[in-house]
């Protein structure tokens, strides 16, 4: 059979005020706030580790955006996170130089199929199907770094149907943004278009179809989305 292969849609994030930031890769940090490390029963002193989501898992997370409840789970969790967008690449970036590589920042949710992630952990298998599913990274528009608040201090929060579920401060990160960029660029050459989700504070929990998620990070545009029925 003959058919035409359509070119894929280029992944991108909306930018506040118009335009888009083209996405290359999405890196996520595990266990970066002490209280969340404790609520998950993990080692408090471990160095940062990373997992990835596909770039097209990033979807709009504002103005009443709808994110479908994903398949194969009965325990979908919210994790509010500061996301930083890399505008200038580099290898072995020092923590002191790290912020010069950041183009902008946004508030994101690391949606997690906690039951699949738990089963993968128990079996010593990769987290991809627990973390990297379709539409698993809703994000609010990016704000340019010069207009954004401090990326190392400020309130970070998430509410479900108006009830506060997660609240913390960027200053509680075990590894601040600058250290994360330094660590990650030891392992890979960072490039323009890379997005880094920097971990979540305590209070993660389940959401279901019909739930409204609002959230934010001081100095950045707010998230506002609804979990829609499964497709
Ligand atoms: Mn996370």
Question: If you had to describe this structure to a student in words, what would you say it looks like?
Answer:
With 231 residues, the chain is mostly beta strands. It has one domain: Alpha-Beta Complex (Fumarylacetoacetate hydrolase, domain 2), CATH 3.90.850. Helix content is 13%, strand content 34%. The protein contains four helices and 18 strands. It has helices at residues 34-39, 114-123, 128-131, 177-187, and strands at residues 12-14, 20-22, 26-30, 49-53, 58-60, 65-68, 76-78, 80-86, 102-109, 112-113, 137-139, 143-144, 155-160, 163-169, 195-197, 205-206, 212-217, 223-228. The strands form five sheets. A six-stranded mixed beta sheet has the order 4-3-15-8-9-12, with helices on one face. Strands 6-18-17-13-14 form a five-stranded mixed beta sheet, with no helix packed on it. The model has no long low-confidence stretch (mean pLDDT 95). Residues 28, 79, 81, 110, 199-200 line the site of manganese (II) ion (MN).
Fraction of residues in helix: 10-25%
Structural class: mainly beta
Ends distance: 28 Å
* Poorly predicted sequence stretches spanning 5 or more consecutive residues: none
Q: How would you describe the shape?
A: globular
**Order of strands in the sheet with most strands:** 4-3-15-8-9-12
Please tally the helical runs, counting DSSP H or I stretches of 4 or more residues.
4
């Amino acid at each position: 059979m003959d058919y035409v292969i359509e070119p894929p849609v280029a992944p991108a994030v909306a930018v506040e005020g118009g335009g888009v930031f083209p996405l290359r890769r999405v890196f996520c940090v595990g266990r970066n706030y002490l209280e969340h490390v404790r609520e998950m029963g993990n080692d408090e002193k471990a160095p940062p580790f990373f997992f990835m989501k596909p770039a097209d898992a990033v979807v709009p997370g504002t103005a009443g955006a709808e994110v479908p409840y994903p398949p194969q789970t009965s325990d979908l969790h919210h994790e509010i996170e500061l996301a930083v967008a890399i505008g200038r690449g580099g290898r072995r970036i020092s923590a002191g130089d790290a912020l010069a590589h950041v183009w902008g920042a946004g508030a994101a949710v690391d949606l997690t199929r906690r039951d699949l992630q738990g089963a993968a952990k128990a079996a010593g298998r990769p987290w991809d199907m627990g973390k990297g599913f379709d539409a698993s990274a809703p994000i609010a528009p990016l704000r340019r770094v010069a207009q954004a608040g401090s990326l190392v201090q400020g309130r970070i929060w998430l509410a479900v149907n108006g009830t506060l579920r997660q609240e913390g401060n960027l200053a509680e990160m075990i590894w601040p943004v600058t250290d994360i960029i330094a660590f990650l660029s030891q392992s890979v050459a960072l490039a323009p278009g890379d997005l880094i989700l920097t971990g979540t504070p305590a209070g993660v929990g389940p959401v279901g179809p019909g739930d409204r998620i609002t959230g934010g990070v001081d100095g950045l545009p707010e998230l506002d989305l609804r979990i829609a029925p499964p497709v």
